[in-house]
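Example record for the data management plan.
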Amino acid sequence: MFIGEAIHFAWDALRANRVRSTLTALGMIIGTASVILVVTIAITGRDYILGQIEGVGSNLIYAYYEAGDNPSRGSLSDFVTLEDGEAARAEVPEIRAAAPIIIQYDRLVVEHGERDITIIGSNLDYRLIRNLKIAYGRYFDRDDLEVRNKVCLITEPLARMMFGGLEAAIEQKVKIRGLQFTVIGTFREGVETFGQSEIRKETLLIPISVMKYFTPSTKVDQLYFSVYQASQVEPATQKIKAVLASRHRPGSVYRVENLAEILRAASRIGLALTVVLILISAVTLVISGLGIMNIMLVTVTERTREIGIKKAIGARRHEILLQFLTESVFMSVTGGILGILVGVSIPLLVRVFVEELVIPISVVSIVVAFVVSCLVGVIFGVVPANRAASLAPTEALRYE
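Corresponding structural encoding:
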C-alpha cells in the first residue's frame, strides 16, 4: 500500500464519522493553540518586565556613600562629591554621561493646603540617564546651569494639583526655600517606578548650580553614570568604585551598583515560567492524544469485519498498520495546523486593535507545537493500529 492510498482510505474513514472526527480534532486544536498562546503570553510578560527595567536604565550605574568601618567617625569628606563625578568621567572611558544629584525637601501650598515635596538638583545629563520625558515646556540648557537661572521642572501630578494642567503650569512661579522659581517644563519618568526611585509624585527638578545656594558643601547624595554599551556596565562599575576609593580615606565604603544582575535574574525567572507554562499546556496535548487513541480503538472494533476481509484478499500486516496509523496522524496533524492558525491569529488580532501593544510570536513555539502534534498522532495511534494489524483474518471475519 502506497502512502497516497493510505491517506485516501484515512480520509474516507474520517468522512464517514465526521462528528466524531471533528470532536477528536478539536482537542488537538485547543491543545496546539494553547501551547502557542502560553509561550506568547510568557514571552510578552518577560519582555515587558525586561523593558521596564531597561527603561530605568540597562546601562545605568549609580554610586553613593554607604558607611565606613567605623560609622561614628565618618566625616563630610567621606561623602561622594561633584569632583568625584568629574574624576570618574575623566578616568573611565566607558562613561557616556554623568549626573550628580542633591535631594532636599520642602513644603509647598498645594490645593489650599501644604504638601511635602522633593527637590532634586542635577545637571543636563540627568535627563538622558534617567530617561525623563518632557510633557510640556523644556529641560534645562547650559545657560541655565552656568548663569544659575532660577528655573524648575515639576512632575505631571504636581502640575495638575497646583495649576490645573500641564500647559497651565508653564511660566508659573513657585517659591522654594524663599527663592522664586519659574516653571519651564513638566516631566515624568520614562518608566513608572512607583515611587521606588528618588523621583516622587510631587517632585521639583532644579539646576544643581542653583541647588548649591541651599548646600554650602560639594557633597552630593548620589552619582549616576551611563555607559555606551550594556557590555561595558560591569567593567565600568569596578573602575568607578576604584576611583571613589582612591579619592577618600581608607575604610570608607561606597556602593557602586547597576541593574545588570536584576536583568539577568528577570531573564532567568522569565525562562523558568515559560518552561513551566509549556509543560502545563503540554498536558492538554497528552489528553488530546488519549482521546485520539480512544477513538481509534473504537474505530478498530467497529471495523473488525472490514479488516478481516482485507486480510482475506491479501492485505499484509504493515498495510493495515499504515492505514490506521495514517488516520490517527491525519487527525492530529489537521488539528495541529488549525490550532497553530488559531494560536497565531489571536495575537495578530490584538495587534490590530491595540496598535501600541507589541506581542511577539515565537516561531519556535509554532515549530514545537506542530512537531508535538505529529508525535501525538504517531505515539497514540500505534496501539490501535497495531491491534488492528494483529487481528487474525478468520477471527475478524466471524466478528459480529
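Summary line stored alongside the record: The beta strands are 60-68, 95-110, 113-122, 132-137, 151-155, 173-176, 179-189, 203-207, 222-227, 252-258.
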